[in-house]
Amino acid sequence: MDVLHYLSIGFSVALTPLNLGLVLAGCFIGTLIGSLPGIGPINGVAILLPLAYSVGLPPESALILLAGVYYGAEYGGRISSILLNVPGDAGAIMTTLDGYPMAKRGEGGRALALSAVSSFFGSMGALLMMVIFAPLLSKLAIQFGPSEYVWLMLFAFTCLATMVGKRPIKTVVGVIIGLLFATVGIDSGTGILRFTMGIPNLFDGVDFLVVVIGMFAISEVLILLESWARNDLKLTPVGKSFISFSDIMAVKWVILRSTLSGFLIGVLPGTGASIASAVAYGTEKRFAEGKDDHFGDGDIRGLAAPEAANNASAAGSMVPMLTLGIPGSGTTAILLGALLMFNITPGPLLFEQQPNIAWGLIASMFIGNIALLVMNLPLIGLFVRLLSIKQSYLVPIIVMLTFVGIYSIHGDTFDLFFMIVLGVFAFILRKLGFSLAPVILGLVLGEVLEENLRRALSISGGDWSILLNGTMTYVLAFATVAALTAPRILKALKK
């Protein structure tokens, strides 16, 4: 009953005219930011933070605006992923695998509608779990040490191994390339430069956004130019803009599983939407093996899973930030900074001492997700019209957006040249039949894996047994082995 009481306080805060307007504004701005390649939620929130502070908004109103931008961007990231094969943010990388093939065969509207519905249910499910289980999950998250994170990353890699099921060798090679990217820069343990080739711009490592935009956007441009040169460019049929009830029923269990896994991964500090969507996609591909598996060719299950997971992860990442003062992702780290700017101390007492802030934020997220669904579904027809633009016009638009987006990050021309080099490299990989998703996720997961493995071995003095030193490590190790062996065992039993 206490929860209902606090929720009523939250909704009384969120439904004031000012806060309601800020929720809607944040969601709309976030959707636009998410749809632009290279910007993403973390940059959108960072850009608006000084504005929210300078105009003198109350703390709860400023947080409501910034949070609206955050989960609005998670919604928006799917638009360019599906229509242009260019991820709007890291969490939307997996959406390209089945979303873009659907758009290519004239189902762009259906893909956008399904992704919006999946995002909605993923967010709402995660918010309900947040309200009910936040105290319990905060205690679970704080128990995760370096060893647990190592096994979580290995589990994610195991799920990743099934993304291109018929080409496991190429998947492994792609992951290795991503891991090599993750090693570039100054070694955090020894201070030695690794694979920088004496270029000062690489001393801090490769920029994630430069790699993502270069490998996806520039390679896609080169693919389009190749088709242009062969004179076989065709307009993509628009198709219908809504999904049927049967589509929703076909993915209901996919959305449920992905929401649960996405939320749990989001609760863990330092993970994020990219890991959540990768695990969800790999898990669903495992479930689909032998049952009309068309993952990678425009399977609606492969679209629903990452979209539900990355939005659930966005809600989950709020839990450690509010209850423990530990940011669950890069974006929540900025939101944590916003709390501190307003002299608000996050932690368990925040919910009791300042319920108008904590519960007002949670209530605004319920309202914001409903607003995003209502806002996005009517606009699907408008988004899909992008597919009817001649690709000879679309190419310069993509190039302009990518160059502006990348240059705006650091204002360094080196990033532009590096992006082009990566684009050419990715183009060659695609021509050789490689998927780009394992490369990008190898980069993301590799950095987290190395950092936590080093930390674990440093604590133990080089003793590898520390990787199996608690109940949670055994659980994650068992899950990793099961994910690796279960499909083979099931196939053997069927024979």
Number of helices: 21
Sheet with most strands? 2 strands, antiparallel
- Structural class assignment: mainly alpha
Order of helices and strands: HHHHHHHHEEHHHHHHHHHHHHH
The N- and C-terminal alpha carbons lie at a distance of 53 Å
Oligomer: single chain
Strand order of the largest sheet: 1-2
What characteristic shape results from the CA principal axes? Answer: globular
Total number of distinct structural domains: 1
In terms of DSSP E residues, the strand content is: under 5%
Rg, please?
22 Å
What's the average pLDDT? 78
Keywords:
495 residues, globular, mainly alpha
Could you describe the 3D structure shown?
It is a single chain. With 495 residues, the protein is mainly alpha-helical. The chain has one domain (2-494). Helix content is 74%, strand content 1%. It is built from 21 helices and 2 strands. It has helices spanning 2-14, 17-35, 40-54, 59-84, 95-104, 108-142, 146-160, 168-183, 208-229, 245-250, 252-267, 273-288, 300-316, 318-324, 330-341, 350-353, 355-384, 391-410, 413-431, 437-460, 471-494, and strands spanning 185-186, 193-194. It has a two-stranded antiparallel sheet. Helix 3 packs antiparallel against helix 4 (59-84) and helix 11 (252-267) runs parallel beside helix 13. The longest helix has 35 residues, at 108-142. It is globular. The model has no long low-confidence stretch (mean pLDDT 78).
